[in-house]
């Protein structure tokens, strides 16, 4: 049974394990509200997951510790369990989906755990972990559907409330629901006036669908850059707690998540993984009723693979109009490229790539296509450039 006493006890137990992450005022990211960030991406292991795992380890019996523990994870829970187990001298085996970023796999090994890669997604790793638990006698540490894990995550709420007065809302990423369950339960017990909002990726809306239909539902598949919250089915405990204590759940797209990651990098010098940035994306793109409110977004983790980060930044630049593409149909004659370049330069755009090709699909026999990539300020800037080109007679095929 989850109790407030457990959450307070967890805060004491975790004092020598975790790092208390101070709130950061985030000006310029969501101008319609007073936004603060709870940077759990700066937590030891780079994620909030070490809180729940650390408290769970402390509650194991000597016999359970001797048998060792097993867990499954998209990556962050794995690292939390690995570190907590190592600190307690407990052997740990982690089942990870084979799609997990290499950085998370290596980090898990680095914290002292053995790793078993499983083909598929989180839910496939979960099934494998249960099989090994039954065959080898390990104690299973659930990533979210466990009262002690939930209590550990609830310590975030205690820190937020102690750090900031007059909070109107807390926005929390949602995968299986362990983080928001702990935060919502704790907040509503101490400061029930604070709204608690969840955010899921539009490609993995398992909790939102379940709450909407008032029953636990399992998605056929998940597809999102936010791998940390790509969960097909919420837990029984978390579904019940979210149903009782969470005020609403919003969805954000991969493009919106990418834009939020980029905004955190540029404006806060803060690296977030996709799952960690969904709470910021919801604030940025008006997904929740927070205009004029004092709001805390939980940035739940920062363990993003460098290769993935590069792709996400590029996607964020395109989503925000910072980079753009033009396809222009031209008559193939001298001076055309010079005129196009002049117009773009006069408008303040920066051409980064040019590709000139002849094609039989143009209206004129002497026609050709010019593909241009540019650095721009925003969508309004792109519109200015395209309109300026049209005004001088150029035919824009796409932009």
Note the main attributes of this structure.
14 strands; 4-stranded parallel beta sheet; 44% helix; alpha/beta; 399 residues; 6-stranded mixed beta sheet
Word description of this protein:
The chain has 399 residues and is α/β, with parallel strands linked by helices. Helices cover 44% and strands 20% of the residues. It is built from 15 helices and 14 strands. It has helices at residues 4-13, 49-58, 62-67, 76-87, 102-110, 122-136, 147-163, 178-190, 206-213, 236-245, 254-268, 274-284, 306-319, 336-346, 379-391; strands spanning 24-25, 34-39, 69-72, 92-97, 114-118, 139-141, 169-173, 195-201, 248-252, 294-299, 323-331, 350-358, 367-375, 395-398. It has a six-stranded mixed sheet, sandwiched between helices. The chain has a four-stranded parallel sheet with strand order 5-4-3-6, sandwiched between helices. A hairpin with an 8-residue loop joins strand 1 (24-25) and strand 2. It starts with a helix and ends with a strand.
Largest sheet: 6 strands, mixed
Form type? elongated
The percentage helix is 40-55%
Unreliable stretches covering 5 or more consecutive residues = none
Number of helices: 15
Structural class: alpha/beta
For the biggest β-sheet, the strand order reads: 1-2-10-7-8-9
Count of strand segments: 14
Question: What is the mean pLDDT?
Answer: 92
Distance between the termini: 56 Å
* Strand composition percent: 15-25%
Radius of gyration: 24 Å
| SSE run | HEEHHEHEHEHEHEHEHHEHHEHEHEEHE
């Amino acid at each position: 049974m989850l109790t407030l006493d457990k959450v307070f006890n967890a805060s004491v137990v975790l004092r020598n394990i975790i790092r208390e992450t101070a709130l950061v005022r985030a000006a310029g990211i969501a101008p319609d509200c007073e936004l603060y960030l709870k940077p759990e991406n700066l937590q030891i292991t780079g994620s909030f997951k070490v809180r729940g795992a650390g408290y769970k380890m402390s509650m194991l019996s000597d016999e359970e510790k001797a048998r060792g523990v097993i867990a499954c994870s998209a990556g962050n829970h794995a690292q939390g369990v690995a570190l907590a187990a190592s600190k307690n001298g407990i052997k740990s085996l982690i089942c990870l989906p084979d799609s997990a970023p290499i950085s998370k796999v290596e980090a898990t090994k680095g914290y002292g755990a053995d790793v078993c890669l499983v083909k598929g997604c989180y839910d496939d790793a979960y099934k494998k972990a249960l099989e090994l638990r039954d065959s080898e006698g390990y104690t299973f540490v659930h990533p979210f559907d466990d009262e002690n894990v939930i209590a550990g995550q609830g310590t975030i709420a205690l820190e937020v409330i102690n750090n900031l007065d007059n909070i109107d809302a807390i926005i929390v990423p949602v995968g299986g629901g362990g983080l928001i369950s702990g935060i919502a339960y704790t907040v509503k017990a101490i400061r029930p006036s604070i709204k608690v909002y969840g955010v899921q990726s539009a490609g993995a809306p398992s909790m939102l669908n379940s709450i909407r239909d008032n029953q636990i539902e399992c998605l056929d598949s998940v597809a999102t850059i936010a791998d940390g919250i790509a969960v097909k089915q919420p837990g029984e405990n978390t579904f019940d707690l979210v149903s009782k204590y969470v005020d609403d759940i919003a969805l954000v797209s991969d493009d919106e998540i990418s834009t939020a990651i980029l905004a955190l990098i540029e404006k806060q010098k803060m690296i977030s993984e996709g799952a960690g940035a969904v709470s910021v994306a919801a604030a940025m793109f008006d997904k929740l009723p927070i205009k004029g409110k004092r709001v805390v977004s939980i940035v739940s983790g920062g363990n993003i693979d460098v290769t993935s980060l590069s792709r996400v930044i590029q996607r964020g630049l395109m989503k925000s109009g910072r980079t753009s593409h033009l396809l222009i149909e031209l008559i193939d004659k001298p001076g055309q490229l010079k005129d196009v370049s002049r117009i773009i330069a006069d408008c303040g755009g920066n051409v980064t790539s040019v590709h000139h090709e002849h094609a039989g699909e143009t209206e004129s026999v002497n026609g050709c296509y010019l593909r241009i990539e540019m650095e721009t300020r925003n969508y309004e800037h792109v519109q200015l450039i395209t309109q300026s080109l049209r005004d001088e007679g150029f035919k824009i095929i796409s932009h």
